[in-house]
Amino acid sequence: MGTWLEQQFSKRSQGIPPSFIREILKVTSSPDVISFAGGLPNPAFFPIEAFKVSTQRVLEIEGKKALQYSVTEGDPDLRAWIAAYYQQKFGMEVKPDEILITSGSQQALDLVGKLFIEQDDKVLMEKPTYLGAIQCLSQYQPTWAEVALEADGVDIAALEQVCVQDKPKMMYAIPNYQNPSGACYGEEKRAQVARILNENKVILLEDDPYGELNFTGALHTPLRKLYKEGTLLMGSFSKIVAPGLRLGWIVGEKEVIAKLTILKQASDLHSNYFSQRMLLDYLIHNPITEHIGKITAHYKAQCEWMQECIQKYFPKEVTYIAPEGGMFLWLDLGKINARALLKQCMEEDKVVFVPGDPFYITAEAGMDKARLNFSNGTKEKIQEGISKIGKRLHDML
Ligand SMILES: Cc1ncc(COP(=O)(O)O)c(C=O)c1O
After folding, report:
1. Which protein residues are within 6 Å of ligand 1, measured from CB?
2. From CA 185, how far away is CA 183, in angstroms rounded?
3. pLDDT attached to residue 178
4. Which candidate in 78, 220, 237, 371 could, as Cys together with 180 as Cys, close a disulfide (CB 3.0–4.6 Å)?
5. Distance of alpha carbon 294 from the chain centroid
């Protein structure tokens, strides 16, 4: 029943699952724990020295402006920078008034939910999907539909069927190096997804925080380029610069951005303006592609090393598809229950990871899956942690 105050909580707040990862992060803050759980970028690549210079410069040159309230849409120069990025990289025309700066892409997700989802609207998710999206969109009390994810994107026949039968209002997808599965849509599937969603007039929420963490150099066409009108494309500086900045963005048709801007205004007036100006100064004075190149090379090496360790220490019944980017390796544990494995690894070995089930909408799904993060750890810790998990896996078989 809870206290009388708890009884006053809105219905909206009651169906929101707590984030398993935030819960596990409480355990992992202890230095003797080896964590493959969080989706943390490697702090060795936070540009601390360059930020010192940019902070100093912004305060000296424009401190009075940078510390003042600002516009909800976000800094015009930062929006122009993002527009130029899409133009240069993908030949995709984006106008500054088609961009809203947000407090991380997580806020964009929330604003889109607020704008489009009525109670019981059908929202289509990849299976599995980012648990932060399940949590965020749950606030708006949708009903869910799911479509299975294969290594090169969603199952196209299933997508077509669910769009025709369930008539979802919106689909949420992470086409590049998905969290948690690492899956990346092939070009053919991108075109098919765009066609199906367009034919059925399903809004696409395209979440792309990992696209730049690309180990192969392949260019992946944004779905917004293929299905412009119906797609809202979210981006983030969290994985390519630093998550503590809390800066991301959303690209959409200008009438949608105008409405999202009003919702954002009601929510937080605007994203941290000093952060925006400091980041812009950093982007102007430092070659971001070089920085991303360094991060990506390191993550690729870490990912390969984790796979080497897995091959050495895990039983052959445990499988995975080698990721070509991103930050995660998604394990299929076969007959082993991920929660039971986690309990042993956490209590006996102080090694943690995320079991698969929080990434699924359906209860009981994903019990045979586990997500390992490879971006935030040293070679030694990866080897030690994987060997310990491996020992438990062998014992549990
Ligand atoms: C798929 C996905 N979307 C969105 C986010 C939120 O990122 P941020 O709000 O830091 O941009 C994350 C964070 O891990 C993520 O994995």
Report:
1. 39, 104-106, 130, 132, 174, 179, 207, 209, 236, 238, 243, 248
2. 7
3. 98
4. 371
5. 20
